[in-house]
Amino acid sequence: MKSYFQTLARYNRWANRRLYGAIGELPPAEIAVPRTGFFPSLLKTLNHLIVTDRIWLSRLTATPDPEARALDQIIAAEFADLSARRAALDDRIIGFVADLPPARLGEILVYKTMAGAPYETPVDMVLAHMFNHQTHHRGQAHGMLSGTTVAPPSLDMIVFLREESAA
Predict the structure, then answer these.
(1) Cα–Cα separations (whole angstroms), residue 108 to 54, 59, 83, 162
(2) Coil, strand or helix at 145
(3) Which has the minimum average pLDDT: 28-42, 78-92, 117-131?
(4) Which one of 62, 78, 104, 135 is least enclosed by Cβ atoms within 10 Å?
């Protein structure tokens, strides 16, 4: 099971690099333009993913993250800063999963939501949620990118697996 999450962590970084690479081709103003989506711009959607990954990592590591305060928070308004933060966070996620003792996957994470409600969720399901959540909102950003002059890249996991096995 741990190797599966390690693969998801590497895929996550690969997909983010591809998506950020394409978004980076847009003029800066286009990244913040209102678009149809749950977080209604590329900038807001990408910030949401950074905030939520940081929140989950803080819960998993029992290390508070005072900067991540709200799900719709703008942590980085400039794309270059956002991109650097995403790359660092993806490396941190890969490291966290690599260092995770396999037995921890079966443990229960006790945490509170942003609203303060207490919950308990198995660690393996928390990790599954983190990666699924990334895919969900990355797909929304991909759709937003489709409405621009920049062609969205393939983010299919099978493409990643083929590239990784060829390397």
Answers:
(1) 19, 12, 32, 34
(2) helix
(3) 28-42
(4) 62
Q: Is residue 33 in some structural domain?
A: yes
Query: Which residues, at least 6 apart from 62, have a Cβ–Cβ distance to it below 8 Å?
Result: none
Number of domains in the chain: 1
Domain that holds residue 16: 2-162
In this structure, the chain runs to a length of 167
Contacts 24+ apart (CB under 8 A), 1-8: 1/102, 1/105, 1/124, 2/97, 2/100, 2/102, 2/105, 5/97, 5/100, 5/105, 5/124, 5/127, 5/131, 6/94, 6/97, 6/98, 7/161, 8/97, 8/127, 8/131
How far is CA 147 from each of CA 7, 21, 49, 101, 151, rounded to the nearest angstrom?
30, 16, 20, 43, 9
Q: Which helix (H) or strand (E) holds 120?
A: strand 118-122
Residue 167 included in any domain: no
How big, in percent rounded to 5, are the helix, strand and coil portions of the chain? 65, 5, 30
Q: Enter the pTM of the model.
A: 0.95
User: What CATH number is associated with residue 27?
Assistant: 1.20.120.450
Alpha-carbon span 101 to 99, nearest angstrom:
6
